[in-house]
Amino acid sequence: MKLKIHEIFYSLQGESSRVGLPTVFVRLTGCPMRCVYCDTAYAFSGGSNMEISDILAKVAEYGAKYVTVTGGEPLAQKGCQVLLKGLCDQGYSVSLETGGAIDISPVDQRVSVILDIKTPGSGEVENNVWSNLDHLKQTDEVKFVLCSRADYDWAKDILNKHAIAAKCPVLFSPVYNQVNPTDLAGWMLQDKLPVRMQVQLHKILWGEKPGV
Q1: Element containing residue 156 per DSSP (H, E)
Q2: What are the pLDDT digits (tens) for 17-72?
């Protein structure tokens, strides 16, 4: 089985509770969504077809414990499920970054799903698959990428309506160079939200570019 891979690279994890950990990233080509703040539009197309065995061999070259499968939207390629299982079988600690528009229920239970719930400001809120919240495990995480104060208020309502923080950790992230992180920190402290604030470490270190 083959997958279209845009890039495989080794870097520090810039997001989620794994922030700062040396990680191999496997970025799959393609995404059905077009978020207004997308920072990986270069992965909408291009890349090369790789056998899953070759992907596993490439990942092994880096000698890392942590692997993140990302995109684009990795679940848009059906073979992604086979890759995730293969990585888990090889003993890696695997996370999956998904945009929330595709059913996560088939994902191997050993994978930590980082589920991005799209806000109104993203332009893709109508594509959220809300049933995904029913499949969350304690080892998963839910992320809200916030474009504005209005997005923050919306995310706060969703957080409470679905009691998401009782299911798994929740992350609030400001859109890079659009929402002031200090403002977001203040809102969260004022409202005493049971969530973790995150900024994108890789962009602080290296800026907004591929391969980091």
Answers
A1: helix 149-161
A2: 999 999 999 999 999 999 999 988 999 999 999 999 999 999 999 999 999 999 99
**Which of 22, 64, 70, 49 is CA-nearest to residue 205?**
22
**Encoding tokens for residue 183?**
């403002």
**Can you name the residues that pair with 8 across neighbouring β-strands?**
26
Residue-range domains of the chain with CATH: 2-206 (3.20.20.70)
pTM over 0.90: yes
3-state percent helix, strand, coil for the chain, nearest multiple of 5: 35, 25, 40
Omega within 30 of 0 (cis) for the link into 72: yes
Alpha carbon 116 to its chain centroid, in Å, reads 6
Both tokens assigned to 85: 């299982």
